[in-house]
User: Fold this.
Amino acid sequence: MIRDLPDDARVLLEQALFVSHSGLLLRVDDRGVVHELFGNPAHWSGVRIGDSLGRTLAFAQTLLMETGVDAWNFVSDGDGGHAHVWRRKSGEHTWMLLIDASGEAELRRLLQQRGNTLHIENERLKKERDARDDQRRG
Amino acid sequence: MLQKKVCMLGSFGVGKTSMVRRSVHSMFDDAYLSTVGVKIDKKAMDSPEAMTLMLWDIAGRDEHQDINPSFLRGAHACLFVVDGTRRETVDVAISIRADFDEMLRGSACVVAINKGDLTDDWEIGQEDETRLRSLSNSILRCSAKSGDGVKAVFDAIARAALA
Assistant:
């Protein structure tokens, strides 16, 4: 697929994948075996041609088997890293594009966590206030 | 190996991630770490038959963000988690089920009432449990902190995923 792009577009895409060190484009078969890759595999568990995604990028293997959806934001396999993932079926193979979203996810987590913690604290204070009011009345 | 997709749903801070950590890694951490997007984990089950549960631990619903519907598609079962010390998390669980009714219609559901170790702060009563029956008849209490009841919850979700 990437080879079929016009030269200028292909160069731009390859630069984006390589220069940012954060992208990986994979061509995999139905069993999740990698046949082709572009980008920076060292950033992605060192995945290599011939590897099974199940051993190196387990979340990508899971997404490969999903039906009805071809794009997922902020997916993690629990080790802390997050990725945005796109998938496109092409004949007997599937192309998967993974973009590292870990920085963006951490920023989002910090904001979300601050908001959630404040929300829970507000709930607790409101309950205490209500309990005091009940005591006063009763 | 048979694989079943299980989505974990509920309000933020109810303990979805802690339940996965307890069940899959036998670990618990008191520190609250909010989930972003989805964390996908695997749990091997040998009963009622050998299978792998693909656990999609989905970021909880809060005031500012909703659940990403693309995470829910194809779920064999949903585990709704509520916090026994926060009654409002019952409403959130019920509203999630209603809002994604069409997408979740084919998925079996189980409800886990977490934080069973905090009985002094318990807010959920019989009336709330009755309301939760609109989600599932399978309602179990557990504590991700102590581990009590967590195995029973995942056994129930495995049975539900097979049904």
Q: What stands out?
A: The longest strand of chain A covers residues 83-90.
